[in-house]
Write a structure and sequence with these properties.
480 residues; alpha+beta; D-Amino Acid Oxidase, Chain A, domain 2; three-stranded antiparallel β-sheet; (S)-2-hydroxyglutarate dehydrogenase activity; flavoprotein; L-malate dehydrogenase (quinone) activity
Length: 480
């Protein structure tokens, strides 16, 4: 998110100075790292939680919105590729079909309803549905081989899906920022933020590594973006902005099974999402993914939820407790009261032995063998909780921007869909924080991105135009 915001600002205001302060010794070692997140571009092709069904009625608005947001991000990346500022796009984005896979008669009927709903939308016109094991085997053989022939299964298939390595993308974006004069300070932790009477922020930081370890310094800035992953909550609390009152965060850790065995990887070339367990949060929906990291293909399955009080993978065990305030304790307790099924799910996941976790994989990949897979610890996710007038507190799914009324500071809380919608979310930050400049910037963005602001889902022609243009620049070649 931070690298994206910096890249957009450098295009709009090339004379502005930009400084990035990173607490670790390298960039993108937390949630942006390819092994710490779900990775693939969340275009809403395969994620069932983006088409909720309530009282027999399914809606597509969220899926259409997220799809549009993702294509806005893709368009910005393709612009930078075209300008030579993002070299070798295959380092961060590759074509990987997206599938949804379900088992059981009720789930098959549910998935068919979802397909019938989405295929009417221009952006989803290429989506295919089948409950024929032979056809599903053509799309993703590992899902079918070794499965009981009498089992009811179904899948939807989108050939135009992608896999994104956000760690590589982050580093490439920051390399571009450095080339345009941005200052990048690594191994440096922000320990306090204070706003002066003139509105300028003083950011107190301390070196965590190197010869000058422990040295403190102050940076002055007219605008601050807190893109600190799970730690954004505590940093916004340190800044004492009124808008953060009532917000809390519950950390959820994750694990994945992965393999780089070429014979196993060759059996599955797709991203496949299933249906979440009862009580599972959206970020814990099971999925079996082809991942491309440093030019090498892997398979990854998960996530398995766990618990750690850390807000970052490289954080402190005191993170959760240090974020507690009088104004957020009651909302957090209210969320715990209303989400007992989530608590039960997390406890079950934490206590589950490896054999039980591996059994979940075999529901997707019947012929998987334990010896081929290793269990890795992924990154931390901080689920946002906030005050609610009726219920006391609610669990907030998705990402949420918090900004001070004067527009001098903003931060991002939340998880999925995360980095895939980075560009539209950061444009929202600019609109909130620089309202008097945004109209002029919109015109400039229109020059930079000729299709900026156009709705991919407005017509089949528009969807085809945007998809073709970005695919060509990004070097993507889906088999349609």
């Amino acid at each position: 998110m931070s690298a994206t915001l910096g890249s957009i600002i450098s295009k709009l205001e090339p004379d502005w100075s930009i400084k990035i302060i990173e607490r670790l010794d390298e960039l993108a070692l937390e949630s942006s790292n390819p092994w710490n997140n779900a990775g693939t571009g969340h275009a809403a092709y395969c994620e069932l939680n983006y088409t909720p069904e309530k009282n027999g009625t399914m809606t597509s608005e969220k899926a259409v919105t997220i799809n549009q947001q993702y294509f806005t991000s893709r368009e910005f990346w393709s612009l930078l590729v075209g300008a030579g500022e993002l070299p070798e796009p295959e380092r961060f984005i590759n074509t990987v079909p997206h599938l949804t896979f379900v088992q059981g008669a009720d789930n098959v009927a549910f998935l068919k309803r979802r397909w019938e709903l989405l295929k009417a939308e221009p952006a989803f016109a290429d989506m295919q549905f089948s409950d024929d094991p032979a056809i599903i085997a053509e799309w993703a053989p590992a899902l079918v081989v070794g499965r009981d022939v009498d089992e009811k299964i179904a899948a939807t298939y989108m050939p135009i899906g992608t896999d994104v390595d956000f760690g590589a993308l982050t580093n490439l974006l920051v390399d571009g920022l450095r080339g345009n004069g941005a200052e990048v300070t690594l191994g440096t932790e922000v320990i306090d933020l204070r706003q002066q009477r003139d509105g300028v922020w003083q950011i107190l930081s301390r070196k965590r590594s190197g010869e000058d370890r422990g040295r403190k310094s102050v940076t002055r800035a007219r605008f601050v973006f807190v893109g600190a992953g799970g730690r954004a909550l505590t940093l916004l609390q340190k800044a004492k902005i009124p808008e953060i009152r009532g917000y809390g965060g519950f950390p959820i850790s994750g694990q994945f099974l992965r393999t780089d065995n070429p014979e196993v990887v060759a059996k599955h070339q797709a991203k496949v999402y299933g249906k979440a367990s009862v009580g599972a949060p959206p970020m814990s929906v099971p999925h079996l993914d082809t991942r491309v990291v440093n030019g090498k293909k892997w398979l990854m399955f998960g996530p398995y939820a766990g618990f750690s009080p850390k807000y970052l993978k490289h954080g402190s065990y005191l993170d959760l407790f240090s974020s507690l305030r009088l104004h957020n304790i009651l909302p957090m307790l209210a969320v715990a009261r209303d989400n007992f099924d989530l608590v039960t799910y997390l406890v079950g996941q934490v206590l589950a032995p490896r054999r039980k976790k591996f059994a979940e994989l075999t529901k997707f990949f019947p012929e998987a063998e334990s010896k081929d897979w290793e269990l890795i610890t992924a990154g931390q996710r901080v689920q946002v909780m906030k005050r609610d007038a009726k219920r006391g507190g609610v669990l907030q799914m998705g990402t949420e921007v918090i900004s001070k009324a004067d527009g001098t500071i903003a931060g991002l809380l939340g998880a999925s869909p995360g980095a895939t919608v980075a560009v539209p979310v950061m444009l929202d930050v600019l609109k909130r924080c620089f309202p008097t400049r945004y109209d002029d910037w919109s015109a400039r963005l229109g020059e930079l991105m000729p299709d900026f602001g156009k709705r991919v889902n407005d017509s089949a022609e528009e969807a085809e135009h945007v998809l073709t243009a970005t695919n060509e620049r990004l070097g993507l070649h889906p088999q349609r």
